[in-house]
Design brief:
Layout (H helix, E strand, L loop, with lengths): L3 E5 L3 H13 L4 E5 L3 E5 L4 E5 L15 E4 L3 H13 L3 E9 L4 E7 L5 E7 L1
Parallel strand pairs: 1-4, 5-8
Antiparallel strand pairs: 2-3, 3-4, 6-7, 7-8
């Protein structure tokens, strides 16, 4: 159902470096880019960074989160650890959540956008 999501950035270079390395862990590559945006994809929904159209500073949406699907807990661990290595802020270490088989790790990118990586076991 979701085609792509974008997160705002105030530093294209820093954000692009973060997402190039992070999304490579999931097999995604840059698909499109312009002066104010870059989009990555890997066969499913895409993720992009963008400078806001109105020219104002990008801000973080309270309660907004992008969830990146993984195939297994080991992939969640690898991608979560890569995010932290790249300077992301921990928002909940990778591990099981409840007893439903949901396994996830939560973090904030360099601009403060909240993401998670997850799989269903």
């Amino acid at each position: 159902m979701i085609g792509y999501v974008t997160v705002g950035t105030n530093d294209m270079e820093k954000s692009a470096k973060f997402y190039d390395a992070l999304l490579a862990e999931l097999g995604a590559k840059r698909q499109m880019e312009g002066d104010t945006f870059i989009a990555w994809g890997g066969g499913g929904p895409g993720l992009g960074i963008i400078k806001p159209y109105d020219g104002k500073a990008a801000t973080v949406g309270n309660g907004t989160m992008v969830a990146l699907a993984c195939d297994k807990p080991e992939t969640v661990d690898r991608v979560y650890n890569k995010a932290i290595e790249l300077g992301a802020k921990d928002e909940g270490a990778a591990g099981p959540r409840g007893d439903s088989g949901f396994y996830a790790g939560y973090f904030r990118d360099p601009d403060g956008n909240k993401l998670n990586v997850f799989c269903m076991g």
